[in-house]
Amino acid sequence: DAKTTQPPSMDCAEGRAANLPCNHSTISGNEYVYWYRQIHSQGPQYIIHGLKNNETNEMASLIITEDRKSSTLILPHATLRDTAVYYCIVRPTYNFNKFYFGSGTKLNVKP
Amino acid sequence: GAVVSQHPSWVICKSGTSVKIECRSLDFQATTMFWYRQFPKQSLMLMATSNEGSKATYEQGVEKDKFLINHASLTLSTLTVTSAHPEDSSFYICSAILGQNNSPLHFGNGTRLTVT
Q: B51-89: string of b/e by CB count within 10 Å (b at 16+)?
């Protein structure tokens, strides 16, 4: 039921910005986009979410295109500890409680 | 911030036995919790939605008699893997929503189950 598409893996140099793309071309008007990450053998960690405006918090920024068909998660200064699998999730409106995970992007931050 | 706690963090059991995993919301009440399963190198798969005071709802293909869910209070949901088999070995993760509507899910740190 995942409605998102992400590249399977990406590399990023330590200290540089990591830009993780997500395609959600079938998103509905009132569906939010959520980003989580999972470090090996741990539960997913919430990062950020948004509807249509760009959002920023202490962890990251979320840029959503005007047509809402894609978004980008930006980690402004990646560290080795940001190495993880990043999941982009669209919560379905037919059951707003359910989160279905896609395959995610493995971000490798390299020294 | 919201914290979801799982116990145990890992468990080894023999085939045919049952294993109970607890999921607690530590600083908030959760009327709804969710159980996921994750096999190595795969994504999380939603197993069931746990509803306080009522029966859990299971995703298609998940055996409700195999994976018993009880949500007896607003802060505790349990998942019991009955008559465990080696193919049940997996990483089980629970989650809960703090608040309503578009609030994010908060996840526990998971339970690694190994069935020998």
A: bbeeebbbbeebeeeebbbebeeebbbbbebeebeeebb
Task: State the average pLDDT over residues B3-24.
Answer: 96
Question: What is the spatial distance between Cα A22 and Cα B43, in angstroms, rounded to a whole number?
Answer: 16
In one letter, which amino acid is A64? I
Answer whether A92 touches B (CB < 8 Å).
no
Q: Does A100 touch chain B (CB under 8 A)?
A: yes
Q: Check: CB of residue A64 under 8 Å from CB of residue A33.
A: yes
**Tens digit of pLDDT for each residue in A26-52?**
888 888 899 999 998 899 999 999 998
| Overall residue count recorded for chain B in this entry | 116
How many beta-carbon contacts under 8 Å exist across A and B? 56
The DSSP-derived string for A51-100 is SSS-EE-SS-EEEE-TTSSEEEEEETT--GGG-EEEEEEE--GGGTT---
